[in-house]
Amino acid sequence: MQSLYAFKGTESDDLKKDEKFLNHSLDSMYDLYLSILALLIELHKKSKDHNEKLQKKLLGTDSDKNPNTKFQNNEILHLISSNTMVQERIAKRKLNYWDLDFEYVDILFKEILKSELYANYINDAETSFKNDKSFILDIYTDIIAPNDKLYDYFEDKRLTWVDDFPVVNTTLLKVLRKLKLTSPETALLPELYKDEDDLEFAQDLFRKTLLNGSKFAEEISAKTTNWDSERLASLDGVLLKMALCEFQKFSSIPYKVTINEYLEIAKAYSTPKSSLFINGILDKVVKEYQSKGIHPKTGRGLM
């Protein structure tokens, strides 16, 4: 959607540059995932540094001289920090921004230390992998992911990361929930695509929507007598063209699946009335196709 909305050329143009932008945007999602792992590694380092500074205080209290080391010894953080494959990939892609932008690590670390989650964690006499995992999942969900300054930081770093953030957060939490002490290093490095078909679908949808853009626009315009030309040039127009492309060029995707998908995208990115507008037009299109027996859907469970 972003790549199509940003496209300023025509159907006859060479699309290689724009396809390259699309592929780069998709690949950038993996960079965000690795950047967050790098952030967790830095928070782990910060916990060690914090305890060392407390112990070196000249006028330190007894609690300063014997700080609680549960955060420092957290086994989930240790698995991430000691993962050589993760470290190598972060270094290779130059994604450890936190050495220079350490203030964000400091902000998050202070938020964690003053939280009730942290107090409950360090005061719990039980020490277990399960507790360590639960603590990391909780602070990530309640403190790290919702942090506005971190969100703004990622937005400034790469524009597409704002939209990738919720997806990457969900993936990271899923990976951490499955993590075990005996998990291989690869467990922290899921594949960006389920298979080659995933990438091919994205590229096909982009290219076929662009190459048939004017045809789709005419078809959409014919479905309403009160067509607002500005809507066709807006995000709504892009979403409608993408939906028609799926209707016509991807026979294995059910109509309902396509409609539901684009209604959700419209609710998230377009105007308050966009989902109703899009739903109305797509409903008309599907009824016409079915009455004429054109663009049938094929495959199991696709009726």
TrEMBL record:
Which branch of life, at top level? Bacteria
The family database entries (InterPro entries) matched by this protein are listed as: NusB-like_sf (IPR035926), NusB_fam (IPR011605), NusB_RsmB_TIM44 (IPR006027)
Keywords from UniProt, A to Z, are: RNA-binding, Transcription, Transcription antitermination, Transcription regulation
**A Pfam family recorded for this sequence:** NusB
Q: Which family does it belong to?
A: Belongs to the NusB family.
Q: Does the keyword Transmembrane helix apply?
A: no
Tell whether Transmembrane helix is among the UniProt keywords.
no
All copies of domain NusB/RsmB/TIM44, residue ranges: 194-287
What is the protein name given in its UniProt record?
A: Transcription antitermination factor NusB
